[in-house]
Amino acid sequence: MAEGLSSFWGPVTSTIECCETNYSHSSYIAEFYNTLSNVPAIILALMGLINALRQRFEKRFTVLHISNMILSIGSMLYHATLQQVQQQGDETPMVWEMLLYMYILYSPDWHYRSTMPTFLFLYGALFAVLHAVVRFGIGFKVHYVILCLLCIPRMYKYYIHTENISAKRLAKLYVATLFLGTMFWLCDRLFCKQISGWPVNPQGHALWHIFMGFNSYFANTFLMFCRAQQRGWAPKVVHFMGVLPFVKIEKPKTQ
């Protein structure tokens, strides 16, 4: 804790702390950089939500972008307070979001339409209840990684069946940001003792937040393109101000 600053939120009760000095800039924000680094993810999710609503994509994408914002807000509250309740408020939406990705990825080929959303909803609700009672610790990380791994084969299938070069570039950006973000997260976790002795802390966990914000945006945009292609909406990838990609569609008049 920085000299002269006190903790507004009281003693740390969360089970995970990152390689950042607590309350170094404000007595109201435990981990300053890890808190503010969630802002880009919220902005990107908001932009994705506006595009989904403006072009009347399916509601699943509206929910997906909103879930991205909820996850980032939960992460902000957790890193700002380092309290156990807020940690659960960060981790539970992480699982919910992965369940939503699983639905979007696998539902087009699922013949029994009501069974998948029902099962995923009950699974998410059960996990939320259990996680409110039990501190899973390493079990949560293993569980989350398994959910992520279940999504990768389907993402790869979408990639190899997509011929559009711009859409393939989105998938590659998704992989690149995931890899870079994971590397920064691992370095922050494994080499904190060495990093703490450096003149400047690179804030690996904060960089993880930033890269994962872009990662979610690229993944969502790619999935929106693939779904629009499945629906025959003639999707194409265009760029906002020549930089940020988004999907533009043309629905048949009958729709």
Automatic annotation (TrEMBL):
One Gene Ontology molecular-function label: hydrolase activity, acting on carbon-nitrogen (but not peptide) bonds, in linear amides
Entry keyword annotation includes Manganese: no
GO biological process: autophagy; ceramide metabolic process; defense response to other organism; response to salt stress
Pfam families xrefs: Ceramidase (PF05875)
Entry cofactors: Zn(2+)
Binding annotation for Zn(2+): H79, H205, H209
Localization (cell): Membrane
Keyword set, alphabetical order: Calcium, Hydrolase, Membrane, Metal-binding, Transmembrane, Transmembrane helix, Zinc
Cellular component terms per the entry's GO annotation: membrane
Spans traversing the lipid bilayer: 32-50, 62-82, 119-136, 171-186, 206-226
Leader sequence segment: none
Binding-site residues for Ca(2+), renumbered to this chain: E20, N22, E31
InterPro entries per the UniProt record, alphabetical: ACER, ACER_plant
Membrane topology value: Multi-pass membrane protein
Key word Nucleotide-binding present: no
Domain of life the protein comes from: Eukaryota
Principal place of residence: membrane
Family per similarity comment: Belongs to the alkaline ceramidase family.
Protein name listed in UniProt: Alkaline ceramidase 3-like isoform X1
